[in-house]
Design a protein that fits this description.
The protein has about 120 residues and is mostly helical. The protein has eight helices and no strands.
């Protein structure tokens, strides 16, 4: 799968880490977006449910609030700070979360256009 190959190549992670990390972020997007908006994202990757299934079990952190804004302002992960545990289960660091988000946004922009990237970006704040 092209997304997983890009993550492996660009980030130097294993296939299992790439699948798990992508699965975590795509599950967050699925939980935070409307069904119609997530279907637009899912149309870019036909096997998106297979990727999501590879994510370690976790609860999606909330996306809004003052703590999220402050975290983002001071170099934190914003609404994704709650993903540190699931990423650590994969043997990945806090910095990996931002790196994965960057590769995913680029991939979805290239494959689906700026509207799809914008939808994903809004979910991963």
């Amino acid at each position: 799968m092209q997304l997983i190959e890009q993550l492996v190549t660009q980030l130097g992670v294993t296939s299992e880490q790439a699948e798990g990390g992508a699965g975590i972020l795509l599950q967050v997007a699925q939980d935070r977006l409307s069904r119609d908006d997530f279907v637009k994202i899912a149309d870019v990757i036909p096997a998106i449910s297979d990727i999501i299934a590879k994510a370690p079990e976790f609860h999606t952190p909330p996306a809004r609030g003052l703590a999220v804004t402050l975290s983002r302002l001071f170099g934190g992960l914003g609404g994704l700070a709650g993903l540190l545990g699931p990423f650590e289960k994969l043997g990945l660091s806090k910095l990996s979360i931002g790196e994965f988000v960057g590769v995913l946004l680029c991939f979805f922009r290239e494959q689906g256009g700026s509207e799809i990237e914008s939808l994903l970006r809004s979910a991963l704040r």
